[in-house]
């Protein structure tokens, strides 16, 4: 099933800026091939939607599309999750279990945040890309699969390789067709287009006819949107819930922030800052310090990776 495209959208992707039109053209080109694709873009830019668009525009559109967040799976479970295991291969393995690669065979496997994958598992990923087969944990027979692979990261590929979170040989295998996903701040009037689209969806679901105030539309263009499209969608949803007929947005300004500055890696808080806000800023600042490496951030903060993901999702 091919994705419809126009100046306004491509499948589930919406936007008419030059950055998005360029993205649509790249999707159209690569979707007709079997090339592996590497999506590089900030969190919240819609990388999974882009992967879906590539899949459903190609020859595998009638097959499985399987999405996996590599960073959300604990290190000791990710190999079994990807490649499966045989019965009795470890404590609790009561039956044979197929992994994501087998589930996606014939279709597309999307590996998000692949830079969070342990280095030793990246070596096994190379074998799958080179030979098209792998061994389940505890297995002695090679499992043959035919999978189109799309990978993604919210970090710079160059930095990921330099920091050792992504093997260079694996990067070359994955980045046959690299695509940079533009952040919302580079998409001009797409911010207003998307906000109105999200509002239309909410109005349709609730059988209402709410609209944005003039000041809300002005705020849409002045905010930097560090959380990108995800942040915008959540903010519109919140405004929709709180409003009666006309939506106003509560976008924090610099003056609203209790945290005044960062000096030599030290956060300076104003007395009276809520503990929840302090915790949030410490987590985000630590994540920024480690260039988006969630595993290292969680270890430094003394929390589990799952807890970190839950906090980031809430933020």
**Which stretches are low in confidence, meaning pLDDT under 50 for 5 or more residues running?**
none
Termini separation: 35 Å
For the biggest sheet, the summary is: 5 strands, parallel
Please bin the fraction of helical residues: 40-55%
Instruction: Specify Rg, calculated over alpha carbons.
Output: 22 Å
CATH architecture of the largest domain: 3-Layer(aba) Sandwich
The CATH topology assignment of the largest domain is Rossmann fold
Listing every helix as H and every strand as E from the N terminus to the C terminus, the arrangement reads EEHEHEHHEHEEEHHEHEHHEEEHHH
Oligomer: single chain
Identify the CATH homologous superfamily of the largest domain: P-loop containing nucleotide triphosphate hydrolases
Strand content: 5-15%
The CATH class of the largest domain turns out to be Alpha Beta
Average pLDDT figure: 88
Number of DSSP helical runs: 13
Cross-sheet strand order for the largest sheet: 4-5-8-3-9
Structural class: alpha/beta
Based on Cα principal axes, name the global outline: globular
Number of domains: 3
According to DSSP, the number of beta strands is 13
């Amino acid at each position: 099933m091919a994705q419809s495209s126009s100046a306004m959208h491509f499948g589930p992707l919406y936007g008419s800026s030059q950055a998005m039109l360029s993205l649509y053209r790249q999707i159209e080109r690569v979707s007709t091939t079997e090339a592996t694709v590497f999506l590089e873009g900030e969190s919240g830019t819609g990388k999974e939607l882009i992967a879906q668009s590539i899949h459903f525009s190609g020859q595998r559109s009638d097959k499985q599309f399987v999405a996996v967040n590599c960073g959300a799976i604990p290190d000791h479970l990710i190999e079994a999750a990807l490649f499966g295991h045989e019965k009795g291969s470890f404590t609790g393995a009561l039956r044979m279990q197929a992994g994501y690669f087998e589930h996606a065979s014939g279709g597309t496997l999307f590996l998000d945040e692949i830079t969070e994958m342990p280095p030793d598992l990246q070596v096994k990923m190379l074998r799958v890309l080179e030979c098209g087969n792998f061994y389940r944990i505890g297995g002695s027979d090679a499992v043959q699969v035919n999978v189109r692979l799309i990978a993604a990261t919210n970090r710079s590929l160059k930095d990921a390789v330099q920091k050792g979170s992504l093997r260079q040989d694996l990067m070359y295998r994955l980045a046959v067709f690299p695509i940079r996903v533009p952040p919302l701040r580079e998409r001009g009037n797409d911010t207003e287009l998307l906000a109105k689209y999200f509002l239309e969806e909410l109005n349709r679901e609730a059988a209402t006819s709410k609209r944005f105030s003039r000041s809300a539309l002005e705020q849409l263009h002045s905010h930097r949107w560090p959380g990108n499209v995800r942040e915008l969608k959540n903010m519109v949803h919140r405004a929709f819930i709180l409003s009666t007929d006309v939506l106003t947005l509560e976008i924090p300004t610099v003056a609203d922030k209790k945290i005044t500055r960062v000096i030599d890696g030290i956060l300076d808080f104003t007395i009276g800052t809520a503990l929840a806000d302090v915790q949030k800023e410490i987590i985000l600042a630590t994540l920024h310090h480690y260039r988006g490496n969630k595993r290292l951030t969680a270890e430094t903060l003394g929390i589990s990776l799952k807890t970190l993901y839950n906090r980031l999702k809430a933020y």
